[in-house]
Design a protein that fits this description.
heterodimer, A: mainly alpha, B: 6-stranded mixed β-sheet, 6-stranded mixed β-sheet, 20 strands, globular, ATP binding (chain B), ATP-binding (chain B), ABC_transp_ATP-bind (chain B), nucleotide-binding (chain B), ABC_transporter-like_CS (chain B)
């Protein structure tokens, strides 16, 4: 297990290094002047020169790469060109919205999906199964922004329980901030839960059809215990895989839902940075997201090893 | 009162009859063999007793265990009976154990359910059970760390852990080599006799059960065709089907033309060796190489049929893979028609492959289910230097199918429409379509029923006589080797330890591995002869 852990960590670090090279290369080395790209075709030569100076574009490539990566490591990400604030502050501020939102959505979707999946699998073909999977089918089909609008209409406009959008910031108190995140969490979690419930059900049914289930039944384990004690753990590998993918999506792929709720999240930041050609922000946020995806994958790999002893030697 | 009694048991699956009025009984301390070919309903009978039939199955009739009516028992009652009073061992040891739990946990689980013991007691009992089945100290191992034979021992330990009165073993050794098979069957019988259990032993192989079962029940198409004392029944079968089975079990195909010595060998290997680097167990110790094949030298003459026999894991498949150019030898040489084979020499390899084809064990897994027979059988034709036209291709496939006894109308069908035996014919058709000089057959009949096995072996013998194809048969089944081979090579731990004509090797084995193989091979003729001598 120790060797497995060490090897995975090493692979994760190497991936991170490679990713930083690719991100750097794509944004800095490709033909075209980043400064001109950021300022547009009509920029004055003085402004261009000033920006080039500020971004350190005059220095050799290696120096720039090393400066950038050492900046990343010390969380000094430079200054945003459009916001004129340190990128690190910008990212932290957005992360304080996106991270709680992603964690809450993932937790909620897991809490819904796994029990529903187990329920459906244990009643394969019965009404409960058909009904819950029919609902899940609807959940998969509904676009999340439209679902978000429905939630706003119902809970914010009609019932007036929560605000329709915006984020007061954690400085305004924990409760108002959480209240602002309730609807976005629901809007993100429910469609994810629908997918995860279907995956859980399919993986469980697959596990329940294996020979070792028959062995367990033949030694006198009841139908329900066989599900909990033998099938569930074997079914968790695909579930963990999907959860990993969903968490990565929740961190950065939520720009549409963030827009519906006027949330200052990471998704909107990167979207705005791209449209405003704020390369410094794009570079840093992309790298941050790459790092978190690598971290999530590492955690998923570790969960495989915890679930299945055969994975520990790989 | 019988321990287990089945009366007029019928089972249908989706309305289709699977079992038709089975009568069967097992007494305490006795062994009853339930014999039949695949699809005859053997496993369904066993699962009916356990009440573990598939969801779409419906059963009628009566099943009683020591007087308890199993057909009308509640699910709760069944849970205490399963494992508690009836233990069951299944066929596939590789998939029958939960991969994420230690074997200790899996044995202790049944003990906790039935004997209501504490965790500690259950662990202790499980450890004792593992000692009894010959796996001491393996409580904390996971299934993937064990071999097939060891896993089957674990299955037996699970089935016997709560001291049931009846043990059902459904083809417990079909996936194992003969030496392990003997060990497992001995273990089952010893456990049954020391605990006074009734044993219902299910097998497709008469030879396996002949010297172990007190009684035999022969099943065909879901009905009992014959039933009686084992030796009497096998010696003088009353039903033609039983007679057919006994004949198939001991029949040797006639070899119309025996091989005559040739001047130069077709295939030769010289000191062929293959090392595998084992998984590193720790970063501190160096990797240990594992020698799968050690200086194997063999030679096959044109038209000669050579059998390579040995236990699972002795290196015979690795040797075959190297000859086929699918694996790289660590050292040594392979000569085909006098020319050395190298993996780098694509052209030479292609030429050799045209003359050297292969038939694999599993007739189900070796075909792409989405391709027609015509495409599948025509596959090796790409090795020809020139492309064949559509008509010519069609003709070649039809000819190959005719050679193996399949009609040309099979051409547009798909693999799933064929039975196991027919699929193996397809595999042979695919192998002979290039008119090869050598066919390497890796356990080509071990997945087939005895009657079909005999017919496929006859086909091999016939093709050898008509087309002059040489064979390298890889098998752990000495009956097969005896049936088809001019020469037998016995392999053990990577070495070829003994070689000679089949009559010499099998009747007067010289080395320990050969002796062990011969002693472990079930032989119906020998068993019946022994019993008539008494």
């Amino acid at each position: 297990m120790g060797a497995f852990l060490a090897r995975r960590l090493l692979v994760a670090l190497l991936t991170l290094l490679l990713a930083s090279l690719v991100v750097f290369a794509v944004l800095e080395v490709l033909p075209g002047d980043p400064a001109r790209l950021m300022l547009g075709m009509n920029a004055s030569p003085e402004a261009l020169a000033a920006l080039r100076e500020q971004m350190g574009l005059e220095q050799p490539l290696l120096t720039r790469y090393l400066a950038w990566t050492s900046g990343l490591l010390s969380f000094d990400l430079g200054r945003s060109y459009t916001y004129s604030v340190p990128v690190s502050a910008l990212v932290l501020e957005r992360l304080s919205v996106s991270l709680p939102l992603a964690l809450a959505s993932l937790t909620l979707s897991t809490l819904i999906a796994i029990p529903v999946g187990i329920f459906a699998a244990s009643r394969r073909g019965a009404t409960g199964d058909t009904l819950s999977m029919g609902l899940a089918q609807v959940g998969v089909a509904i676009p999340n922004f439209w679902f978000a609008l429905l939630l706003v209409y119902l809970f914010a406009v009609w019932l007036r329980w929560v605000p329709a959008g915006g984020f007061p910031g954690w400085g305004a108190g924990v409760w108002p901030a959480m209240k602002a995140l309730i609807l976005p969490t629901l809007a993100l979690a429910l469609p994810q839960a629908a997918i995860l419930a279907r995956v859980t059900r399919a993986a469980l049914i697959d596990a329940l059809d294996q020979d070792y289930i028959r062995t367990a039944r033949a030694k006198g384990v009841s139908r329900s215990s066989v599900l909990w004690r033998h099938a569930l753990r074997n079914a968790m590998i695909p579930v963990a895989t999907i959860m990993g993918l969903q968490f990565a999506f929740l961190l950065a792929g939520t720009v549409v839902v963030e827009n519906v709720f006027y949330l200052p999240g990471l998704g909107r930041l990167i979207f705005q940075a791209i449209t405003q050609r704020d390369l410094i922000v794009v570079e840093s946020v992309v790298m941050l997201l790459v790092a978190s995806v690598i971290l999530i994958n590492l955690l998923v790999d570790l969960s495989y090893a915890l679930i299945d002893p055969r994975q520990r030697v790989a | 009162m019988s321990l287990l009694a089945l009366q007029n048991l019928s089972v249908t699956i989706d309305g289709k009859p699977i079992l038709r009025g089975i009568d069967l009984s097992v007494e305490s301390g006795r062994t009853v063999a339930l014999v039949g070919e695949s699809g005859s309903g053997k496993s369904m009978t066993a699962l009916s007793v356990m009440r573990l039939l598939p969801r779409n199955a419906a059963a009628s009739g009566t099943i009683t265990l020591s007087g308890i009516d199993l057909m009308h028992a509640t699910e709760r009652q069944m849970c205490t009976l399963r494992g508690g009073r009836v233990g069951m061992v299944f066929q596939e040891p590789m998939t029958a154990l939960n991969p994420v739990k230690t074997i200790g946990e899996q044995i202790a689980e049944g003990i906790r359910i039935h004997l209501r013991s504490t965790f500690r007691e259950a662990q202790d009992r499980a450890a004792g059970m593992l000692d009894r089945v010959g796996l001491p100290g393996m409580l904390h191992r996971y299934p993937h760390e064990l071999s097939g034979g060891q896993r089957q021992r674990v299955d037996i330990a699970i089935a016997c852990a709560a001291e049931p009165e009846l043990l059902i073993a459904d083809e417990p050794t079909s996936a194992l080599d003969v030496v392990i098979q003997k060990q497992i069957l001995d273990l089952l019988q010893n456990l049954a006799s020391e605990r006074g259990m009734g044993l219902l032993l299910i097998s497709h192989d008469l030879a396996v059960v002949a010297d172990r079962a007190d009684e035999i029940v022969v099943l065909k198409d879901g009905a009992v065709v014959e039933h009686g004392k084992t030796i009497d029944t096998l010696r003088t079968p009353a039903h033609p089907y039983t007679l057919e089975l006994t004949r198939a079990s001991s029949r040797l195909p006639a070899r119309p033309r025996r091989h005559e010595a040739a001047l130069s060998p077709l295939l030769e290997t010289r000191n062929l060796t293959r090392d595998y680097v084992e998984r590193r167990t720790s970063w501190l110790t160096p990797r240990q190489p594992f020698r799968a094949v050690d200086s194997a030298s063999l030679s096959i003459e044109p038209g000669q049929s050579v059998a390579l026999v040995g236990r699972s894991g002795c290196g015979k498949s690795t040797l075959a893979r190297m000859i086929l150019g699918l694996d790289r030898p660590t050292s040594g040489e392979i000569l085909f028609e006098g020319k050395p084979l190298h993996l780098e020499d694509r052209q030479g390899l292609n030429e050799a492959r045209r003359a050297m084809q292969v038939v694999f064990q599993d007739p189900y897994g070796s075909f792409d289910p989405r391709q027609t027979v015509e495409k599948l059988v025509a596959e090796p034709l790409h090795l020809l230097p020139q492309r064949l036209g559509k008509a010519e291709r069609h003709e070649r496939v039809a000819e190959a199918l005719a050679q193996v006894g399949l009609s040309a109308e099979s051409l547009s069908r798909y693999p799933h429409e064929f039975s196991g035996g027919q699929r193996q014919r397809l595999a042979i058709a695919r192998a002979i379509i290039l008119r090869p000089k050598l066919i390497i057959a890796d356990e080509p009949v071990s997945a087939l029923d005895v009657s079909i096995r005999a017919r496929i072996l006859e086909l091999f013998a016939d093709l050898n006589a008509r087309l002059g194809v040489a064979y390298l048969f890889i098998t752990h089944d000495l009956q097969v080797a005896r049936a088809v081979a001019d020469e037998v090579l016995v392999m053990d731990n990577g070495h070829i330890v003994e070689r000679g004509p089949p009559s010499n090797v099998f009747d007067r084995p010289q080395t320990e591995p050969a002796k062990a193989l011969v002693a472990a091979t079930p032989d119906l003729g020998r068993t019946l002869a022994q019993h008539s001598a008494i």
